[in-house]
Amino acid sequence: MSPSSPTPGTNQSWGGRFSEPTDAFVERFTASVGFDQRLALHDIQGSIAHATMLARVGVLTDTERDAIVTGLGEIREEIERGEFQWSVKLEDVHMNIEARLTDKIGITGKKLHTGRSRNDQVATDIRLFLRDEIDVVEAELARLRQGLIELADREADTIMPGFTHLQTAQPVTFGHHLLAWQEMLARDHERLLDCRKRVNVMPLGAAALAGTTYPIDRHVTAELLGFERPAENSLDAVSDRDFAIEFASFASILLMHLSRMSEELVLWTSAQFDFIVLPDRFCTGSSIMPQKKNPDVPELVRGKTGRVYGHLMGLLTLMKSQPLAYNKDNQEDKEPLFDTLDTVRDCLKAFADMVPAIEARKASMYEAARRGFSTATDLADYLVRRGVAFRDAHEIVGQSVAYGLREKKDLSEMSLDELRQFSEVIEDDVFEVLTLEGSVAARNHIGGTAPDQVRAAAQRARDALAAMRDGRP
Ligand code: ARG
After folding, report:
1. Cβ < 6 Å from ligand 1: which residues?
2. Structure confidence at residue 5 as a pLDDT band (50, 70, 90)
3. Atom 2, ligand 1: residue with shortest CA distance
4. What is the mean pLDDT of residues 55-72?
5. How far away, in angstroms, is 300 Cα from ligand 1 center?
């Protein structure tokens, strides 16, 4: 049989050694084109670079290269216009595009695959694709951080209760709370940029597993594709998907953080807290209870965290115990990775759009901080400054709080005589520390909640974010 006509019903790219057609179910079961067509533009980008390199080292003629590059450019347009006919018979994105190229330019199309394999091709495609997607995610993450920093700056003086065990602990400023979120995201941002470095390494040239006998120049291809360098080891290059696992791990930690923020937003919009208002455009109503305005966006982000953790577990388990080098198992890397990317991007967009529109219900926050004996520690510190041992001061304040609970009075609402029942050292100046403003202003050191510190921290965060963005590849 001539090489151009393999056994009817087998894949035209590898049917040569087969004597019967692929089982119809197996054809569907093994095909990935239903989802990996999402890699099409990056597949073409990789192929153009590969053909360019092959011509540079003399494996292809310039005429052949030009035919391939032109043909692939036309295919790209067909795909972008939505006209490309994907075929399950051709298994995956790579063979669909290659077959179309051969339709268009004839035998020269078949030369494109010289010196490479789908194994190094797919690993390259995913890395090119993920690198672009990381840049989109990175921009959204930066936009969210910027929004948090500006909101924190505006709310540097706004007082709210700070919590431990979800019980009122000490007053803090809302700006300080927002900057805590910002710190979490700053670390996520670092993790993302760090992950990008390891994504940006080129498998191409590893071919099936051992490299190729053609005189390829991997530095040329790497440079054309903007990769930092060619991967060192061909077996490793075609097999490991740790870079995708690393992205899913970044995504899981990020979503964990977003879920914590979501949880607080959900609590705060409730009538019981009434700390913030989310604009109507980020909420939905109830079909049965007309009064309802539900914080669906943060609730959904909280919920979507689960699927991202699931993808991390899926990818880790996919890779576990795989012998070198490429195994078909790895075809299963794409759907979890794609869904992780889509989820992360949507959640970040939702948050980046929503955060600047958060409206603080300042009076309500203030009142909540006033109700919860949140300046009790300040009274203890006051007593210590007057020579009382901290443990005794703790006991004295405990008694004052018990009295306040009985009399329904906050510490700041008690008269000097009432306070002096518990300690003689208390003087008139105690009221300066019992106020919420006095309490937050006193925590005036780096990392503390004092409004001046929050404004300074916001400025440092702004500078750090700008520096991080300037330093991007
Ligand atoms: N569709 C395959 C994947 O996603 C491409 C590589 C297949 N290589 C092979 N020799 N079957 O992993």
Report:
1. 32, 36, 92, 118-119, 122, 328, 330-331
2. low
3. 331
4. 98
5. 35
User: What mean pLDDT is predicted for residues 369-378?
Assistant: 90
Is the pLDDT at 4 greater than 60? The verdict is no
* Amino acid letter, 210: A
The pLDDT score that the predictor gives to residue 472 is 78
Mean of the pLDDT values across residues 9-25?
84
Token output for 429: 């100046």
The two structure tokens encoding residue 428:
């008139």
- Give the three-state DSSP class for 160: strand
Distance CA 409, CA 396 (A): 16
**Ligand 1: distance of its center to the CA of 97 in Å?**
14
**Mean of pLDDT values over 242-263:** 98
Render 82-121 in DSSP notation, one character per residue. Answer: T-----GGG-SHHHHHHHHHHHHHGGGGGGTTTT--HHHH
Residue written as token pair 């001061």:
393
For 38-47, 160-169, 242-251, 289-298, which range has the lowest pLDDT when averaged over its residues?
289-298
Ligand 1 centre from 90 Cα, in Å? 12
Residue with tokens 């004996």: 373
Question: Is 90 exceeded by the pLDDT of residue 16?
Answer: no
Torsion of CA 295, 299, 304, 309, to 10 degrees: 150
Q: What angle do CA 21, 26, 30 make, to 5 degrees?
A: 115
Q: Is 50 a known active-site residue?
A: no
The answer to whether the beta carbons of residues 372 and 168 sit under 8 Å apart is yes
**Which residue minimizes the CA distance to atom 3 of ligand 1?**
331
Top mutation candidate among 47, 117, 122, 337 for ligand 1, by most atoms within 8 Å of CB? 122
The CA–CA distances, whole Å, from 326 to 199, 238, 298 equal: 18, 6, 40
Q: Is 294 helix (H, G, I), strand (E, B) or coil?
A: strand
Distance 93 CA to ligand 1 centre (A): 10
Question: What single-letter amino acid sits at 109?
Answer: G
DSSP-derived secondary structure for 42-74: HHHHHHHHHHHHHHHTTSS-HHHHHHHHHHHHH
